[in-house]
Amino acid sequence: MITCNKCGRKNNNAAKTCSKCGHKLQSGRNRSERNTVRQERSDMFHLKLERDKLFSKHGEAWVYSLFLLGAVIFFTYNQIYWPLYALTPAIALLAWFRKI
Ligand SMILES: [Zn+2]
């Protein structure tokens, strides 16, 4: 049974229009098509999330690189080299743990 959206009359499943008011009836096929569109939209949403995650990971890598670069410049300027030997592997290890 298909219920008419306009007048509420129940129509035969095969009917394309309402037998009372002539309003075009929603078939099951139309409903599934709409679900497909919704599915595609949610897929696009997930794709966007994946892209954002990737971007934030790139951003994080950049922060580490800039921090390391800043530290290298700072310690070189002050002519202290020993913290660099500890800092470089520490940053590399951090980046590795974060799977960058
Ligand atoms: Zn109707």
Structure commentary:
The protein has about 100 residues and is mainly alpha-helical. The protein has one domain. The protein is about 65% helix and about 5% strand. It is built from 2 helices and 2 strands, in the order ββαα. It has helices spanning about 30-75, 80-95; strands spanning about 1-5, 10. It has a two-stranded antiparallel sheet. A hairpin with a 6-residue loop joins strand 1 and strand 2. Helix 1 (about 30-75) runs antiparallel to helix 2 (about 80-95). It binds zinc ion. Zinc ion binds near residues 4 and 23.
SSE pattern: EEHH
* Average pLDDT taken over every residue: 80
Portion in strands: under 5%
Shape: rod-shaped
The span between the termini is 56 Å
* Order of neighbouring strands in the sheet with most strands: 1-2
Structural class of the helices, strands and pairings? mainly alpha
Q: Please, how many domains?
A: 1
Ions, cofactors and other ligands present here are:
zinc ion
Summed up, what is this model?
This protein has 100 residues and is mostly helical. It has helices at 28-77, 82-97; strands spanning 2-3, 10-11.
